[in-house]
Amino acid sequence: MTGMLKEDSLKGKTIIVTGGGTGLGRSMGKYFLELGANLVIASRKIEVLEKTAQELEKETGGKVLPIACDIRKYNEIENVIDKAENKFGKIDGVLNNAAGNFISPTERLSNRAFDIVIDIVLKGTYNFTLAAGKNWINKKQSGTFLNIVTTYAWTGSGYVVPSACAKAGILAMTRSLASEWAKYNIRSNAIAPGPFPTDGAWKRLFPGEVAKKIDPLQRIPLKRFGEHQELANLAAYLMSDYSAYVNGEVVTIDGGEWLHGAGEFNGLEAVTPEMWDALEEMRSKK
Ligand code: HXC
Ligand code: NAP
């Protein structure tokens, strides 16, 4: 549960984290600062970003630039890139982390509700990727994209269908650009986290009575949630030059959750040792 990389592993790098004012974005950004990076955090609520920036600067001694930006709006992203370059000189990495999500039977969604999630998650991520990628290519600079998806990006999932569609799109973009933009020294990778408690996710995905009906812990073979530092370690590695040869990868960090759900007989963990004894006895009598 402690930091994994060597001191100064990200020294001199400037990294933009979308949605960096809260939750997992904040935790990953904090570790980037501890490793010597300059941090730019961008999302809609400037008051949240400013508070986080102050806290993180105090906690780490690093430099944080908070910038209001709705990632659905391309011109606001261009503004983030301009301001980040004016303050820190150049940008080295973009962590596409911002998202919106909620649970609902799909037939209850309005088309606007579908749009709202797709626009934040998929359009917001491709907007940022396009703006930052063009900027790096025009300036002949290398760069690293790291995109936060989820494990249902490839399995799909009911009740979060707009999010599943959007995350699947991000995964396809990650792999596509890993190939296409490698010639510009731009790497693209993704992380697929399982459940890591955050206020933003928990209040929307496990609200009130729902949390009593589904216990996400039961789905995880390791029987615990992820620790933010565990995710931050992986993100820092994929942002750092230590992963210079990793390109187009999606790394799952979910305690084995999605495979546990997929494996035909994994439910047999419900069979007690006594039942196995009885089964063995029946077998040996044959
Ligand atoms: C059904 C809903 C809804 C809900 C909103 N809508 N919430 N429909 N169920 N729970 C509908 C509204 O009725 C409206 O449609 C449309 O969506 C837009 O709603 P607004 O409230 O106007 O949108 P807005 O204020 O912009 O809010 C966006 C948001 C919100 C996505 C709905 O939750 C948000 O800002 N989220 C950002 C942070 C976040 O979601 N974090 C969690 C990420 S967790 P109509 O037709 O009525 O106008 C995550 C984890 C994945 O991704 C994996 C975990 C294991
Ligand atoms: P969170 O704290 O709610 O983070 C979401 C962030 O996105 C917020 O900071 C929000 O800031 C920002 N955002 C939303 N709409 C935006 C927009 N239009 N423009 C710019 N920023 C916007 O939730 P989290 O749990 O940390 O999630 C972070 C990432 O991890 C997401 O990609 C999520 O899908 C992924 N993930 C989380 C889990 C988990 O268990 N927590 C599991 C798998 C994947 P503003 O409101 O200020 O805009």
Would you mind describing this structure in some detail?
There is one protein chain. The protein is an alpha/beta fold and 286 residues long. It has a single domain (14-284), classed as NAD(P)-binding Rossmann-like Domain (Rossmann fold). It contains 11 helices and 7 strands. It has helices spanning 23-34, 46-60, 74-88, 111-138, 152-155, 161-180, 199-205, 208-213, 228-239, 257-262, 273-285, and strands at residues 14-18, 38-43, 64-68, 93-96, 143-148, 186-193, 250-253. A 7-stranded parallel sheet has the order 3-2-1-4-5-6-7, with helices on both faces. β4, α4 and β5 (143-148) form a beta-alpha-beta unit. α4 packs parallel to α6 (161-180). The chain starts with 13 loop residues before the first strand and ends with a helix. The model has no long low-confidence stretch (mean pLDDT 97). Bound molecules: hexanoyl-coenzyme A and NADP nicotinamide-adenine-dinucleotide phosphate (NAP). Residues 18-19, 21-25, 43-45, 48, 69-72, 97-101, 120, 124, 148, 150, 193, 195-196, 198, 200-201 line the site of NADP nicotinamide-adenine-dinucleotide phosphate.
